[in-house]
Amino acid sequence: MKELKPIKPALRTEKIEYAVRDIVLVAQEAKKKGKKLLFLNIGDPIQYDFRTPMPLVEATYQAMCENLTGYSASEGVDEAIVAIRKEARKKGIEPTDIFITTGASEAIDFALTALVNEGENVLVPFPGYPLYTAILAKLRAEANPYYLDEDKGWQPDLEDIESKINERSRAIVLINPNNPTGAVYSKETLQGIIDIARRHNLVIFSDEIYDKLVFDGKEHISIASLDPELPMVTFNGLSKCYLAPGFRIGWGIVSGPWELVKDYVEAIHKLARARLSTSHPKQYAIPVALNGNQNHIGEALQKLQRRRDLTVEMLNDIPGITCVKPEGAFYAFPRLDIPGVSDRDFVRELISETGVVVVHGSGFGQRPGTAHFRVVFLPPEEVLEEAYLRIRKFMREFLARHNSRRGQ
Fold it and tell me: 80, 169, 218, 383 - which has most CB atoms within 10 Å?
C-alpha cells in the first residue's frame, strides 16, 4: 500500500498572522505555571461586565419563532437594509449599495477580494487591525503600510500616505476610531485623505465599527459624508457599539456614483451569492439596534471613559511607558521607552511572569525603531488597577535586567 504523505498547506497561508489570538498560546503556558491570568487582549465586551441589549436578543428569538430560519437574500433582508440606509443618511452618507455579512470581517473580505488582484497593493494603517494584512496575504496581494503619527494623537501621516502610493495601489484603508490606538480622526485629516485618493483614483475603505464609542464629547465623522462622488466602502456592524460580537452581523455601505461603482458592486454581490447568506434570524436585530433605544451606549461610554482615564493615568506613571490618551473605542497603545527592547519579548516575559495578557505592538504594525503593546480597557476598574500594578512591578524588574545586560 502506498505510503501517505503529509498534507502541504496552500502557500497563500504562509504570511497570515493574527497576533490577538496567537498570544493566547503564551497565556496558556503561563496558566500551566499557576499564574492568575488577567485578560487585556480581546476586544469582546461580553467577556467582561457588558451585556447585549435584550431587544436585540428578543428580535432574533422572535424571528426564529416565526420560522425565519431559512436562507435570506444574499445581500440581506429588506428591513435591515432599510434601517442601515436610514442610519447612513443620518451620518451624511448616501448609500449606492448595502450588503449584510457575517460580521464586519466578511464585509471587509468581500470588499478587498472584489477589488484587489495578485501583486497589487492596498495602503493599510500601521498600527492597525491585523485582519486587513491577513486577507491581503491570502489574496497574494501586498499590504502597503502607512504610519499613524504618535506625536499628533495617532492621526494618519498624510505625507507618508502620499509617498507610499505607486502604480499598483488600489485603495486606502482607514480605521476610525482606530484599533489599536483609540484615535478619532479630525475632519482636516479625513479631507486630506480624500484629496490624496482623488489624485490617485483610489477607493477608500473606512472601518467605523466603533463610531458611537467616542469620548470627551468629540464628534465622529464618516469620511463618506465629506465626498459623495468618491467611491468608498464604509464598514460597520453590531459587534462593538451594540455589544453583540457573537451575533456575527456586519455590513458594508458602498457610496459613489453608480456608473463608477456598478461593476465593483456586482463583484461583491457575486461573492455574497456564492456563500448563500449570512445568519437570517439575527439580521432582524439590525433595525431594532439602529432604530431603537440607545441608552446602552451612554452607559457603556460612562464605564469606558472612567476605565480609559484610569488606564492612561496609571500607565503614564510607570517608568519606561508612555501612553497617548485614546479618544474612542476601548484600546490603548502604550509605548515602551526602552532602547533596543523587543515588544514581542517584552510581552512574552510580561505574560509569563505576571499573567497580564496584552498583545505586542508589532502584531498591529508600528514605526521601525519603536516598541508598543496594546491593552483593552474593557475590564472593570479593579481588574485594570491590579493589572497595571503588576505591570509596574514587572517593569522595575525588567528595566533592572535590561540595564544590567546593557552594562555588561
Answer: 80
Residues 110 and 252: their CA atoms lie apart, in Å, by: 9
Q: How far is CA 156 from CA 152, 188, 190, 208, in A?
A: 9, 11, 9, 15
Q: What is the number of other CB atoms lying within 10 angstroms of the CB of residue 250?
A: 23
- Provide mean pLDDT across the span 337-349: 90
- 25 and 246 Cβ atoms separated by less than 8 Å: no
Q: Angle formed by the axes of helices 381-407 and 295-316, to 10°? A: 30
Q: How confident is the model at residue 341, as a pLDDT? A: 85
Strand ranges inside 45-190, DSSP E: 97-102, 121-126, 142-149, 155-156, 169-175
| Pair 69, 272: CB distance under 8 Å | no
pTM of the full predicted structure? Answer: 0.93
Pick the closest to residue 322 from 390, 375, 372, 386 (CA basis).
Answer: 372
Predicted confidence (pLDDT) per residue in 80-110, tens digit: 999 999 999 999 999 999 999 999 999 999 9
Q: Which of 131, 75, 73 is nearest to 251 (CA)?
A: 75
Name which of 146, 148, 140, 173 is nearest 162 in CA terms.
Answer: 146
What would the DSSP string read from start to end of 291-319?
HS--HHHHHHHHHHHHHHHHHHHHHHTST
Cα 25 to Cα 41, 57, 272, 350, 366: the distances in Å are: 12, 32, 33, 14, 23
Which one-letter DSSP state was computed for residue 67? T
User: What domains are defined for the chain?
Assistant: 11-51+295-407 (3.90.1150.10), 54-291 (3.40.640.10)
